[in-house]
Amino acid sequence: MKEKIRNYALSLDIDDVGFLSARDYLSPRSPDLEKIHPEIKSIIVLAYKEPSSCESNNMQIAMNGRLDLLEFTRTCNYKMIRFIEKEFGAKAMSVPVSYPLEMSYETMGSIGDVSLRHCAVQAGLGVFGRHNLVIHPKFGTRLVFTAILTNIVLESDKKLGLELCTHCDLCVKSCPAGALNEEGKTDVIKCIRHSQ
Fold it and tell me: In this structure, are residues 81 and 74 in contact, taking their beta carbons and an 8 Å threshold?
């Protein structure tokens, strides 16, 4: 079943796929998956490499590249849901790149209902770097993740057993907002103030 789902995802031009059993999902701050739906058994994590247009110094070109990527991920997630529902008669729900988020004063909109970064690491798609981003062994950090939540029981893929971050602290020194000064934490407010 996993291979059939993986092959379908790759046929859609999704760059990588990982599987995570709901019982193995751990996120330090996101709510329990049962609050989304009580029947969730597995998480299918989808990785998408950012297009080279996102690297442009022209902000309109870079932003359009990002918007194109977000639109593509939503289309792929919808196709994945339809495939799972039709092929396996199962329930499937989409978790897009950025939302849903808990929009409270306490979280300041910085905590997703599903932590896609933690899912990606736990599903073997990469490891955390000093900058708190996921480093993929082939694509580095220039990718985004989405997920499909389903009531199909799937075993977790093996976590990566390699270290991809050299802890050179170049990311910390280069961060214009100083948002990475505390190891293991990104000061989201500092980051948003500078990046937005």
Answer: no
Q: Which of 140, 130, 143 is nearest to 185 (CA)?
A: 130
DSSP 112: B
Say how many C-beta atoms besides its own lie within 10 A of residue 123's C-beta.
29
Residues whose CB falls within 8 Å of the CB of residue 120, separated by 6 or more in sequence, listed in order: 18, 45, 47, 126, 134, 145
- Cβ atoms 37, 118 nearer than 8 A: no
C-alpha closest to that of 145 among 33, 57, 20 = 20
Q: Look at residues 88, 111, 92 and name the one whose alpha carbon lies nearest to residue 46.
A: 92
pLDDT per residue, tens digit, the chain (196 aa), is: 999 999 999 999 999 999 999 999 988 777 788 888 999 999 999 999 998 888 888 989 988 998 999 999 999 999 999 999 999 999 999 999 875 455 566 655 556 778 899 999 999 999 988 888 899 999 998 999 999 999 999 999 999 988 877 788 888 888 888 888 888 778 877 877 776 6
**CA–CA gap between residue 6 and residue 64 (Å, rounded):** 28
Pairing of the two strands 92-95 and 42-49: unpaired
pTM of the model: 0.88
